[in-house]
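Provenance

Sequences were taken from public entries as deposited. Structures were produced by running a predictor on each sequence independently, with no templates supplied. The record for Nuclear transport factor 2 family protein from Streptomyces peucetius is shown for reference.
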Amino acid sequence: MTESAQVDPVEAAADAERRLLEPAVRSSPELMASLLHPDFREVGASGWLWDRDSVVAALSPEASKALPITASRMTGVQLATDLVHLTFDTETGGRRAHRSSLWRLTDGRWLLWFHQGTPFDAEVARPDGVRLAQPDGPPAG
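Predicted structure for Nuclear transport factor 2 family protein:
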């Protein structure tokens, strides 16, 4: 039985997303590659553009000792039989980001196809995540 037949698609994608945040995965090119679609693209919270090969090449054993990444407010919706969209926030070492991921069912497995991270400052955001001000400017209208 395939993964898709056993588990709700949103739950399966969310489980895979949480695995990507684990230090053991973030330090292992093999484990990371196993969760990324061959056509994977990312717009990182840093502003850098990444593809599957560049993400895997950037991994190092030291990543297993990095600060933990905490995910919160994860929600998802199935957009098509083979596509799930997840949104969530992360925090690591005081840095926060809103995140959006698209997961595609490929050969019976959910693989990360696209990801974007956008930094945010909790001091200028409402609890629902809507920004109240620009980082160095007046409150938004």
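Strands lie at 36-43, 49-51, 70-80, 83-92, 95-106, 109-120.
The mean pLDDT is 83.
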